Amino acid sequence: MRTHGFRIAIVVGGMALLLGPIALAQEGNLLSNGSFEEGPKVSAKKGWLTLRGTAATALKGWIVSRGTVNYLLPSAEEGSAAHGKVCLDLYGGVKQTFATVKGKEYRVTLSLAAASGEGRERIGVEAAGQKTVFEANGGKNKNAPLAWSTNTWNFVARAKSTTLEIYSLSKKDNGPRLDNVSVVPANK
């Protein structure tokens, strides 16, 4: 869990109660940088940066595993990222390896949107030899805001570490948008 180093004090009946650091990510997320906020600087004027080759590891915790990925500040017309300021525009895929317990079930949660005006777009999600597909619909209006959906999927770990890979299955001008990815034990 990522936290900032400040605390909140609440005064109740003349006594100050000091609360712990404020959590900024989903409680217990096993992934690093699931909202992609820790990455390269993106010019607000351009709005995106393509990650490939030597830039493939520029996103803290993630590796570009297939093709290219755009690190994106959504435009005013598109609205906002699902969480924070940035999201990924998947032309290829990203992956991250994290610690797991063999035989334990885990839940992947992610936010997905199709680029406005691109119709239906799909992503593949794989972990521990298991996989699923999610779909989003960007409709026909190129000026519509992103319609984020929350998607969940469970898998069972087969080793003490597992690699989660998320990749585009679409062959369009703009790839599906990905944000706010987390993995937690399924019993939470």
Please provide a written account of the structure.
By secondary structure, the chain is mainly β. It is built from no helices and 13 strands. The strands form three sheets. Strands 3-5-6-13-8-11 form a six-stranded antiparallel β-sheet, with no helix packed on it. A five-stranded antiparallel β-sheet has the order 4-7-12-9-10, with no helix packed on it. Strands 1-2 form a two-stranded antiparallel ribbon. Strand 9 and strand 10 form a beta hairpin. It is globular, with a radius of gyration of 18 Å. The chain starts with 7 loop residues before the first strand and ends with a strand.
Blueprint (SSEs and pairs):
Elements: E1 8-12, E2 15-19, E3 48-51, E4 63-66, E5 69-72, E6 87-90, E7 93-99, E8 105-113, E9 120-127, E10 130-137, E11 149-156, E12 161-168, E13 177-185
Antiparallel strand pairs: 1-2, 3-5, 4-7, 5-6, 6-13, 7-12, 8-11, 8-13, 9-10, 9-12
Return Rg in Å: 18 Å
Separation, N- and C-terminal Cα atoms: 15 Å
Q: Structural class, judged by helices and strands?
A: mainly beta
Number of helices: 0
Shape: globular
Reading the helices and strands in chain order gives EEEEEEEEEEEEE
Residues in β-strands, percent: 35-45%
Record field, number of beta strands: 13
Largest sheet strand order: 3-5-6-13-8-11
Provide keyphrases for this structure.
single chain; 188 residues; mainly beta; six-stranded antiparallel β-sheet; five-stranded antiparallel β-sheet; 13 strands; 0% helix; globular
Would you kindly provide a brief summary of this structure?
The protein is mostly beta strands.
